[in-house]
Design brief:
Length: 110
């Protein structure tokens, strides 16, 4: 039973690390991609005669950061918490129920 607990703990920790890694990759892509697109858009807008302020605060420039930023926020909430919103409490309760069921099955076999 002790080995089962260690395996379960390892899997739980590994899943958490995998989710963290996925978030960091997603966030890095968000920064790199949006910075590149924003730079290109600002340069194009400046070439068209817009001022720097107009180019920076153009809806097209800001919208991509905001829209993708909402996705990043949801991803961050799912990785780092915000139980009410994304139901981590439900996940914990369900895991506990499943663990208890598995223990009950193992105890019946003994």
């Amino acid at each position: 039973m002790e080995e089962f607990t260690k395996v379960h703990l390892y899997k739980k920790v590994k899943d958490k690390v995998d989710h963290l890694r996925a978030f960091y990759i997603h966030f890095t892509g968000y920064i790199v991609f949006n910075t590149t697109i924003t730079t290109i858009k600002i340069i194009d807008d400046l070439d068209e005669g817009k001022t720097l302020q107009e180019a920076l605060f153009d809806f097209g420039t800001v919208a991509i950061w905001l829209i993708w930023g909402i996705g990043i926020a949801f991803h961050a909430f799912s990785v780092f918490g915000f139980d009410y919103f994304l139901g981590k409490n439900w996940e914990r309760r369900k895991l506990q129920e499943c663990m208890e069921e598995e223990e009950r099955i193992l105890n019946q076999k003994e």
